[in-house]
Amino acid sequence: MKLMGRLIQLPDSQKVFGALVYMYAEYYSPNKASELVAKVKENQFHLSLSNLLPSGYLPVPHAYLLDQLEDMTLEKETRKKLYQAVKKLEYVKLEQLKALLGRPREAESIYPYVYSNASQQIHASLDSLRYDMPGLSPNLYSVPEITIVEQQRSEGVEEGSRTVVVDFSAFLSMDQGEESKEIIDVLNQAIQDGKLLFLGPRASQGLNTYQITNLGIEGNGLCETSNSYLNLGMLLPRNINYSESSLRLHTSERRPYHAAGGWDASSDSKFISFVAPGSIIYPEIDKSSEHMGGSIRSPFNEHEIVFGNSYLLPIALPQVDLEVI
Hints:
The protein is α+β, with helices and mostly antiparallel strands. The chain is 24% helix and 24% strand. The chain has seven helices and 21 strands. α1 packs across α7 (178-193).
């Protein structure tokens, strides 16, 4: 996908799933989309999705790498510098990731890498026009935004060059069958139509708007056999080995949403914890990646689900070199 404007936050796998179902309903019917969602929830049709990621990059497993650094004998100042070097890396390329998993102390020399830069944009609401009451002062407010930046290293330039990222990718895995053919048809039709996807609020102001540009088959060494996985989305875990896995959690607050009135502030909120992208997951014995995530019924609407089938990328974890030079 290509980002068509500015950005508040990168869409997670739940938001990508919602956009996919919405397109499916548009091209087929709402009833057929409801049937698809029910099959996903009941595990009758396997469909997993990643968060939207900078194209060519994968999330860095911070928890795993920091655990490895903890096992090394390091001077205090060296340990601090390596911790900072690991934490600044939000996304790296596959080959860089494989090297980093074996030698986490080389985090300082990883280039290029991608990170997010947060900012606040000031907006003015002209209440005098809105309410037809001349003389009212503009109402100033700020909107949080982020910029996704690729950090390059340039010879002779200490800071290196930076490029704003506008090309993103999402990984999709599904069972073969009628539903998967229909979903692929929907995506190809969206590309052909130049359809815009609104993956976040304030789309009317040009924020969080994307266009699907290409649909491709996974390649470039991503497919490999392993009993460990890199989590690429928001995972509601099932059948994972908690003692072996390196997990980072993301907890979100949920409230009911009504199309007419927006978020219902009067209702009690619910909190749901997900395994966040960048976590290293080990399955329980004899369980495949298809059985390590799942979806649950929405706590506010029995016809909706909380999507938790995250895309899990098989990745072999090399023997970590603990030697410090």
